[in-house]
Amino acid sequence: MDVEISNEALDALFAAARAASPREACGILLGQEKRVTALLETANVHPTPHTHFEIDPQALIDAHRAAREGGAQVLGYFHSHPEGPAKPSATDTQMAAHDGMIWAIAGRPDDGGGEGHTLDEKGYTEGGSQSYTLDTQGYTSGEKGHTSRSFDVTFWRDDQPGFTRLSYQRPRR
Ligand SMILES: [Zn+2]
């Protein structure tokens, strides 16, 4: 496990992705070290927000200031791909600053490809029916009624060699 994310932050992330569609949602991941405790959704100020994102720079400045004043750390960034897969796009790769930040990307679930199943926190394996696998992979476990989830999420570290995929889990309590 590389990253831990709270239920609240995960809920906020999917809600933001759904609400912004067909535009890209974006925001700031807040927390401590490897624990994402909150998502601060921000305006997407990019001029073509259907296919790009740019986090409102003032929101980012404010978040860094709050962190310096003892608030939650800025751990990374979130954005969504309303029509694309939950992985860095060519544009994301170009924009990456290789500064060690975490990127959370919400996108459409893979339609049967092998990739994406590695994040299955509940240990489901491939081999069930395809729809079952897609329904259960990733986030939802049913108790909150997310029966028709249409987004998946992946986490990445933007480091010197480029994006490295991170595993994640919700807190075990
Ligand atoms: Zn992207």
Short overview:
This protein is α/β, with parallel strands linked by helices and 173 residues long. The chain has four helices and eight strands, in the order βαββαβαβαβββ. It has one domain: Cytidine Deaminase, domain 2 (3-Layer(aba) Sandwich), CATH 3.40.140.
Describe what you observe in this structure.
With 173 residues, the chain is α/β, with parallel strands linked by helices. It has a single domain (3-169), classed as Cytidine Deaminase, domain 2, CATH 3.40.140. 23% of the residues lie in helices and 31% in strands. It contains 4 helices and 8 strands; from the N terminus they run βαββαβαβαβββ. The protein has helices spanning 7-20, 57-68, 90-95, 130-136; strands at residues 3-5, 26-32, 35-42, 73-85, 101-108, 152-159, 162-166, 168-169. An 8-stranded mixed sheet has the order 7-6-5-4-2-3-1-8. A hairpin with a 2-residue loop joins strand 6 and strand 7. It is globular, with a radius of gyration of 15 Å. The two termini are 15 Å apart. The structure holds zinc ion. Zinc ion binds at residues 79, 81, 89, 91-92, 105.
Label this structure with key terms.
173 residues, alpha/beta, Cytidine Deaminase, domain 2, 8-stranded mixed β-sheet, 4 helices, 8 strands, binds zinc ion
| Strand order in the sheet with the most strands | 7-6-5-4-2-3-1-8
CATH superfamily caption: Cytidine Deaminase, domain 2
Derived from helix and strand composition plus strand pairing, the structural class reads alpha/beta
Largest sheet entry = 8 strands, mixed
**C-alpha termini separation:** 15 Å
Give the DSSP E fraction (strand runs of 2 or more residues).
25-35%
Q: Can you tell me the CATH topology?
A: Cytidine Deaminase, domain 2
pLDDT < 50 stretches: 113-148
Overall pLDDT score: 83
3D shape = globular
